[in-house]
Structures are given as structure tokens and as C-alpha cells.
Amino acid sequence: MYRNGVEPYPNTPRKLPIIDVQGVGVIQAKPDTAVITVGVSTENEDVTVAQQENANQMNRLQTALISIGIQESQIETISYTVLPQYQYSSNGEKIFKNYEVINMISIKTKDLDMLGTIYDAVFKNGANRAETISFSLSNEDEVLNRALMIAAKQAFEKADVIARTYRVTLVSTPLKVTEVLSGFYPRKLELSIAASSPTPIVIGEIPIQATLNVQFSFIQR
Asked: pTM here?
């Protein structure tokens, strides 16, 4: 029994009844930026010759890009590697074959109508390695905020339905909001060296998703 009716831990907070809900907001947005990743690969027993051949092809490629309106600032070197290549004899002996020089670059553009032209230009002028075209949004934060608003509204609506179903009064101010997942899923297209000219490139929409876990308290009527 407590003396004078006072609990031993008067400052211990009482747990509030809670409704846990999750809200999801998804917005489909048209991308406005694309990055094409391609490269030049050359091979030779003499590493210096392989490097020079690679440089010549890359210079030709960049000249072709500039001729169609791409600025040097839009072209970025991603990686430059020199790899010795080996082959194996019938008895399993490792024998040096040659050197492979790989120079990978990215080309960034906001003129998506130019993608087919860029694609054709690089593969007609030296590129012989194909990777991807990656699409993204320059105003991702703005679109993401809209998705968060949708997620928050959905979470409140779910909690309100639950509260009304059980005939309790929902406290509209949430106790806790946790952002579980937010962001966009970049769309990528695999490139192929063999393609007809002009190359058609179809651009789809990018889903921007926000997911919130929200806790609301309620009052018994």
C-alpha cells in the first residue's frame, strides 16, 4: 500500500494508447536529365601502343560529341584502367596475351531529344563498350516533398478511420513520425552497340516514393 495515496514513482510517464499507421505517397515524374555511360577499349601487346590507340579513339569520340553540340563540361571520365590479359595453354600454363586499356566516360544532358543523336555519334566514332543510360530529376527534392505530403495525409486518414471504427477520438497531432523510405528509383536502360540509326530511345516516368510510419494517440469517448 502506498503512503498517503502517493505512488512511489510520481514522475513516471503513463503510456498513452497508440494507433500505429503507415502512409505511402508515390508520384510519377518525367525525367529531365540523362547520363549516357560508354567507353573505348583497345588491346595491344605493347601497353604504350594500346594507350595511344585508346587516346586516338577517345579524341575522335569527343570531337564528334562537340560537333553535335555537347560541351566539354558535359563529358566526364569515370574510369581509366590498364589490364594485362592472359590465356592458358593446353597444360594449364598462364601465358601473357596483351594489355587492354579501357576508358569509360559519361555524357550528361538535359536535352533528352538529343539522346539518339548522342548514342549514334559515340558508337560511330570510337566507342566500343556500352553500359547504360540513366534518367533522373533535377527537382527531385520538390517532387519528394509532394510525395511526403501524400504519405502524411494517407497516414492521418488511416488513423482517423481506425479511431472512428472503434469509437474513440483521434488526437490529430501525431506523437511520432518516422521517415522509413524516401527517394526515387533511377530508371536505367541497357545500351547496345548494335543499333539502327537514328536510334529511338523511349523515356518512361520515374516513381518518387515517400513512406512514413506515424503514431497517433486517442481519447476514449
From this structure: 0.71
